[in-house]
Amino acid sequence: MLCLGLSGGLDKVYENTVGPQNTFMHDGAAVLVQDGRVLAAVEEERLNRIKHSNKFPAGAIRYCLEAAGVQLGDLDRIAFYATETYCNAMLESMFASQAGINIPLDAKLLLRTLLAQEFGTEVDASRVSFVGHHQAHAVSAFAMSGFEESLVLSIDGGGDFLSGILAVGSEAEVRQLEAFPEKNSLGLFYLETIRYLGYGLFDEYKVMGLAPYGDPAVYRKLFEQFYELYPNGGYRVFLDGIGPTLLRNIQARKKGMPFTQQHRDVSASLQEALERIVFHLLRHHREATGLKRLCLAGGVAHNCTMNGKLLYSGLFEDIFVQPAAHDAGCALGAALMMSDEVGRPAPRERLKEVYWGPDLASEHELEQELKAWAGHLEVERCDDVAGRAADWMAGGAVIGWVQGRSEFGPRALGNRSILADPRPAANKDRINAMVKKREGYRPFAPSVLEEDAPDYFELPNGAREFPFMNFVVRVHQSKRDLLGAITHVDGTARLQTVSCNSNSTYWALINEFKKRTGIPVLLNTSFNNNAEPIVDTIADAVATFLTTELDGLVVGPFLIKKRTATLEDWSALTVSLPPYASLHRVRAFTAPDRQETVSEIRTNASAGDGLRISDDLFDLLMRIEGEGVLGHLLDAVTSDMARHEALVTELRGLWEQRLIHLRPSTQVASTTVTKQRTRDNRNAMNMA
């Protein structure tokens, strides 16, 4: 039986009819299961390149169908990640008062309409279901845990008018014990506080990383005004009081401004308050139910600092955190719920890996695509990429590493990663600055060979497997100075253990690094810059490689370095707009007393004003029909070669922000390869 689970929004990638809601309609994904086993899964953001995509997951659905070799009509059930009542209420609140928007206010009809438009297949209403949001979270965790019985906690910002549930999972069912209303949302509790630290939705993990730099005692009494703990594990949060109280007691930080010690202390107090509430809730229900195991899901379950403290507490003998705990993971839960409903439950096995996304192309296809970038890339095929990549990193290089199928969820787990030597503390600052362009305080995670993990990290309860970066653990005191790039200020790290059975390619790379350095650990962070989701395809990898200061790239069996590209090389590329971008000329104030007509590029994928661009670049981009060869477009705009250089520089800036696409032209790629070979031969003759 084939069951498809979905999460995400209700408009297409080029539309902007449905804005992202505060806690709903984001993190779109599709997951296809057969008889309770996952065949394919991917988040829509990996495909449409919109972070936390709030669009209809058409690309993710298409991938799942192609991976399984089936059509939409072959599916037995399709399930969406919220109740039909909730979805209808959301549609009504968004569109009932908006004239001119032709969208049915019936969620099932809208979903079936979108599927028919995208896939040309009418889906019978009896095969389309809506499931409880938090039930989907809970099932996604328990069904993958391998536990026969456990306590299950789902907590996030909100969904289905709730912010979480507590349940008991057993072989027969996941039975709800308690539901938490949105007014008691721990996700919103965290979000409401971080607004005064210059952060917003999806930035919660940044504050978690900032918290160890602060002292929670400073604002402990202040934060105790924001919540109340009741007997029997109950609690209440006072969301309305957070903003006014903080404004009276701290200097709110604006985005982009420096952090003060006050902001660090607020972060620490917030993290402590969250942990105190969750421990209070779980401690009571652990005693009341006698259950010794715990499953966690929902966006708050990505708080790996809290997870680590739960692990060290000994409150539970074992804890399983669903690795895609955010709303994309609800697509997994929805699919599993449908599979169980039709009599094909998930097997009772512990989840070992989540390499469920698109695979790399064939070696021949990879080679052809890389050759098309001949003016920009130096490519070498190698039978020992693990050894050569280990040499690069041991010599100080920071590399991109792309192998096999991509990971499902928000963590790069060794198939779409940026990797480096974990020892020099300077590597943390270097990668934050040259690739991520993010706050310097934020830590990086270690990947360690599973068999060597106890020698470097304090692993509680004799645990050895931490494959998903779900827990912050302590680095052994004696290893903290040695592992300077991955040890956080409080002596901890967000750990990934790597098993040869689950990912032999990544294991081999770390093992080769160990042979050269004696260290079975690598610094591992997601392969992306600050403007995009994690890369998925080779095209994504090349774009990120060429728009960051990475030293090298390994894709499949190919070792890749950068060439110094000429204006001719850049002019040979094609340029296009992504479907979520648009061009505008508007009247705007350029000084307090002056208005001018300015050119902008905007995106419907994020809020905020458009980015100003030059009038020449606006004219160039307006000439594109689908895509255009850059050299032809430059010639059409100006004959001044200095202006060509300036426009290419401006375009490269937009490319870095993923506001345009640049890629090799199929018409000129073979010519570029021939020219590059001629250049290489000439250089070789000169050297001789």
Q: What report would you give on this structure?
A:
With 688 residues, this protein is of the alpha+beta class. The chain is built from 23 helices and 29 strands.
Percent in helix: 25-40%
Report the portion of residues in β strands: 15-25%
Structural class: alpha+beta
Which geometry do the CA atoms define? Answer: globular
Order of strands, main sheet, comes to 13-23-22-14-15-21-16-20
Largest sheet: 8 strands, mixed
Give the C-alpha Rg. 26 Å
- State the end-to-end CA separation: 65 Å
Keywords:
688 residues; alpha+beta; five-stranded mixed sheet; 36% helix
Tell me briefly what this model is.
The chain is an alpha+beta fold. It is built from 23 helices and 29 strands.
SSE arrangement:
Layout: E1 2-7, E2 29-34, E3 37-43, H1 44-48, H2 58-68, E4 77-80, H3 84-95, H4 107-119, E5 128-130, H5 133-145, E6 149-159, E7 162-170, E8 174-181, H6 186-194, H7 204-210, H8 220-223, E9 227-229, E10 235-237, H9 239-249, H10 261-289, E11 293-297, H11 304-313, E12 318-321, H12 328-341, H13 363-371, E13 377-381, H14 385-394, E14 399-402, E15 416-420, H15 426-436, E16 445-449, H16 453-456, E17 457-458, E18 472-475, E19 492-494, E20 496-498, H17 504-517, E21 521-526, H18 538-546, E22 552-555, E23 558-562, H19 567-571, E24 573-576, E25 581-591, E26 594-603, E27 611-613, H20 615-622, E28 628-629, H21 630-637, H22 641-656, E29 661-664, H23 669-687
Parallel strand pairs: 1-4, 4-5, 6-11, 11-12, 14-22, 16-20
Antiparallel strand pairs: 1-2, 2-3, 6-7, 7-8, 9-10, 13-23, 14-15, 15-21, 16-21, 17-18, 18-19, 22-23, 24-28, 24-29, 25-26, 26-27
Helix pairs in contact: 5-12, 6-9, 6-10, 14-17, 20-21
